[in-house]
Automatic annotation (TrEMBL):
Lineage of the species this protein comes from: Bacteria, Pseudomonadati, Pseudomonadota, Alphaproteobacteria, Hyphomicrobiales
Keywords noted in UniProt: Methyltransferase, Transferase
Protein origin, superkingdom: Bacteria
Record GO terms (molecular function): methyltransferase activity
Biological source species: Neomesorhizobium albiziae
A GO biological-process term: methylation
The UniProt record lists the keyword Methyltransferase: yes
Name of the protein this chain belongs to: S-adenosyl-L-methionine methyltransferase
Amino acid sequence: MSRLDSFIRRVTAQRDVLDHISAEVAGMDGPVIELGLGNGRTFDHLRERLPGRRIIAFDRALAAHGTSTPDPEDLVIGEIRETAPAMAGIDAALVHADIGTGYADKDAATLTWLPELTARLLRSGGIAVSGLPLEHSELAPQPLPASVSQDRYFLYRRK
Ligand code: SAM
């Protein structure tokens, strides 16, 4: 599969999973946490699906399109491993983590801290959507929508 095909499958899976959970998240209190703002495409999608919901976005540098840049109070710049733990206990309804790199060694390093961070950010019953698998005793894997292959994107509920 070419990298273009792989990219298309990844962003299609992102969209389908975010659409799959957005109605449930809309009925749940708590902010949305976007780990990896990037260009701001998924931030913009979540903003459209969850109008009025506070979305706090994290990235090591601001590179989002101008129309998809959060307000300054909802943008946290720096290494997520260092910045996001300050928000542990915020009782997020949704954590979306799109910080996989496609490099096995870098992703393995991320996975030493991302599952625990995600669990600490979520409320009980809150939802985690991730491009990397999150193995954690408090995160229960959830079925994906039929359009998304196993291992393409990952979905969990905080116990
Ligand atoms: N979902 C975004 C979109 O739709 O535009 C794309 C996110 S992009 C794939 C991943 C982003 O996460 C990059 O902008 C990168 O700088 C950021 N990132 C990855 N690991 C990070 C870390 N450990 N700390 C801070 N930012 C990180």
